[in-house]
């Protein structure tokens, strides 16, 4: 392991710890995997520190590893490893937005099976956005929730061909990492035509009603109070 290898490994360790210390880890993976990621970062940094100490105590030329049969030369692999880590240190990860929610094709269909165990919340106004969607996946008859109060938070999505007084309030759900994130949401009807910019985070209070969305009977949140909010530090649901 030469100095370039140590530099690449150390950069990846620093990158993982940087994501943790700056709170950006929540934009990338499920909290269940935080300890593993943090442990990996500490291990990589510790390995580089230990190797540096050994080389300082016992200076000398490190033994070269045999190239053997490889898809890429070792120098290329080192460069890719280091350059990827450097890009990660420079670029700030950002959560998914409304455009990605629309491109996924899942927001309007709501066909994804929820991965976690569902426990219904007794008070309707205490249900989160994902609680409502899980409830609908379990008991899909929208008339059963007619008139129930709701209070949800999410970002604005404007599906094509929606009426001027309707948008979707949405969140992304993560089961492992951002790569498997998928959107869930509810249609929201406003009492009058008003424009909310896509990706604006809102807290919406109102009550549930049944209506037509893309020719299908769907549960619709009739908004009574809308409050703009700051995007949460952790934008995903689980």
UniProtKB/TrEMBL annotation:
<feature type="transmembrane region" description="Helical">
    <location>
        <begin position="76"/>
        <end position="92"/>
    </location>
</feature>
<dbReference type="InterPro" id="IPR048447">
    <property type="entry name" value="DUF1980_C"/>
</dbReference>
<dbReference type="InterPro" id="IPR015402">
    <property type="entry name" value="DUF1980"/>
</dbReference>
<protein>
    <submittedName>
        <fullName>Membrane protein</fullName>
    </submittedName>
</protein>
<keyword id="KW-0472">Membrane</keyword>
<feature type="transmembrane region" description="Helical">
    <location>
        <begin position="33"/>
        <end position="56"/>
    </location>
</feature>
<dbReference type="Pfam" id="PF21537">
    <property type="entry name" value="DUF1980_C"/>
</dbReference>
<feature type="transmembrane region" description="Helical">
    <location>
        <begin position="6"/>
        <end position="21"/>
    </location>
</feature>
<keyword id="KW-1133">Transmembrane helix</keyword>
<dbReference type="InterPro" id="IPR052955">
    <property type="entry name" value="UPF0703_membrane_permease"/>
</dbReference>
<feature type="domain" description="DUF1980">
    <location>
        <begin position="139"/>
        <end position="238"/>
    </location>
</feature>
<keyword id="KW-0812">Transmembrane</keyword>
């Amino acid at each position: 392991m030469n100095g370039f290898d140590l530099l690449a490994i150390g950069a990846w360790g620093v990158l993982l710890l940087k994501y943790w210390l700056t709170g950006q880890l929540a934009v990338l993976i499920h909290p269940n995997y935080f300890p593993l990621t943090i442990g990996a970062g500490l291990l990589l940094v510790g390995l580089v520190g230990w190797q540096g100490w050994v080389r300082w105590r016992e200076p000398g030329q490190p033994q070269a590893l045999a190239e053997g049969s490889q898809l890429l030369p070792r120098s290329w692999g080192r460069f890719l490893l280091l350059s990827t880590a450097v890009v990660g240190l420079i670029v700030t990860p950002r959560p998914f937005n409304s455009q990605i929610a629309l491109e996924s094709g899942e927001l309007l269909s709501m066909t994804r099976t929820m991965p976690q165990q569902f426990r219904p919340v007794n008070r309707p106004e205490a249900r989160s956005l994902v609680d409502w969607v899980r409830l609908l996946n379990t008991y899909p008859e929208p008339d059963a929730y007619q008139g129930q109060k709701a209070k949800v938070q999410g970002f604005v999505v404007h599906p094509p061909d929606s009426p001027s007084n309707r948008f979707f309030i949405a969140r992304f759900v993560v089961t492992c990492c951002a790569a498997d994130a998928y959107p869930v949401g509810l249609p929201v009807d406003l009492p009058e035509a008003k424009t909310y910019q896509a990706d604006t985070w809102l807290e919406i209070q109102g009550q549930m009603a049944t209506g037509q969305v893309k020719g299908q009977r769907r549960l619709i949140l009739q908004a009574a109070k809308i409050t703009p909010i700051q995007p949460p530090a952790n934008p995903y649901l689980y």
